[in-house]
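Standup notes, protein team

Yesterday: finished cleaning the Limosilactobacillus coleohominis set.
Today: DNA repair protein RecO structure.
Blockers: none.

Input for DNA repair protein RecO:
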Amino acid sequence: MTRVNELFNGVVMQVRDYREHDQLIKFLTDKQGPAMFLVRGARRKNFKMASDLLPFTYGQYVGWLSKDRLNYIISVQESNHLTHIATDINANAYATYLLELVDRAFDDGKNIGGWYDQVMAALHLIEKGRDPQIVVNVIEVQLLGRFGILPEWRHCVICGRTEKVMDYSEAYGGLICINHFDQDPHRLHLDPKTVNYLRFFATLNLKKVHEIKVDPLVKRNLRWALDKIYGDQVGLRLKSKRFIDQMGTWTAQLKNWREK
Ligand SMILES: [Zn+2]
């Protein structure tokens, strides 16, 4: 067993009570991806790191990291709170889903390269009040590769053309051009705008994004397309995602009720 006392950047993904006085806290770390920490005494009154270890807190921590066992936090160098995400139900729902998806996409204890910065950029955009659905859609497109789906977004899978009118084909695992629409009757029948956004998202660096403006119809189509791809090809239905879907239903019902 190797245990090294080291400095790492991390964001709190989940907090679970453990035994009488302790907590199990899962971080996404820059050094070892998702990592579970046992925090002794976290449930005691006057626990001195209490505010550094709340959900959606991020910062620099010192801990004992081990690749195959529980990790331990030794001290906190600096911590920050994502207060909008912690208090706004919509932002919170999307950020929770984002982190659950990331947790599923990576193995515990393994370096995730540039992904840590990309996830933090996503959280900061949601924190700043940017459209959380679109931020999460970008990550969903980019994580497909982690789930073993590597869609060809650059050109038609069949002929290699890059022309404007394309559609997504699950059977072919990527885009097909208008000349080959007849090859897959079950293509997703997406409108060109939605397809262009999906292609754009595949390589988008969220650190360079400031404003987000996508019209409501395209947003609905993006949501539909990604739900379809995640349902059919990835086979993933997360609880946090179902909550977002239910929230959409409640909002629609409330709107109907108010308009009556
Ligand atoms: Zn083609």
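Follow-up from PR in the comments: The chain has two domains: 4-81, 87-259.
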